[in-house]
Amino acid sequence: MKKIDIITLIISVIALAAAVSFGIISIKNGKAAETPKATAEEREAHAGEIVYVELDRILQEYDMANDKRSVVETKVQNIQAEINRRGKKLEKDIADYQDKMNKGLMTRSVAEVNGQKLQKAQEDFNAYAQQKQAEIQEEQIVMMNQLADAIKTWLDKYNEDMGYAMILTNQGGAPVITADTTLDITDAVIAGLNEEYIATKSQK
Predict the structure, then answer these.
(1) pTM above 0.85, yes or no
(2) Which of 44, 51, 161, 179 has the fewest CB atoms nearer than 10 Å to its CB?
(3) What is the pLDDT along the chain (204 residues), one digit of tens a residue?
(4) Cβ(153)–Cβ(24) under 8 Å?
């Protein structure tokens, strides 16, 4: 055998050994085969990894979020209905006043007194509407704070067992623009949150 053939053989053996050592080639049933990669279903996020949750999905599928949203929406509808009722009454009073003025059915002094009353009623209505709008905003802020606290508290306890390095909150594609889907733990979080919430409700 020529010297060049011996060198070629040695290089080939070294390359083959390296391939087997690094898992590039595996021997199965006496044949060389590629090492299969783990599928998305088989792979799971492990301790020490950075994972994320889809907050939009949680707020849609979390039973506590749906219950609280229903309560707030009912309050908002009742407030809006009362604002509309008072607004329509004020509009009617103003229309009646203008109609009587146009027909000359009031003296100037009576018209002046009634006009002042209507102006005061308009100011009171505006103040009432602003107050109720502030109440609606406060109700919504409190609801979101309650949900955020419940989710954060649950995730803190959950991560004591899982040991993730970090759990990111993704909403509307930010801050996680793209990522390995196996790092998305939203399904597990929704299931755990709902299980805890249902258990809590049954105790009350």
Answers:
(1) no
(2) 161
(3) 444 443 343 334 333 333 333 333 233 344 433 433 434 444 578 889 999 999 999 999 999 999 999 999 999 999 999 999 999 999 999 999 999 999 999 999 999 999 999 999 999 999 999 999 999 999 999 999 999 999 999 999 999 999 999 999 999 889 999 999 999 999 999 999 999 999 998 887
(4) no
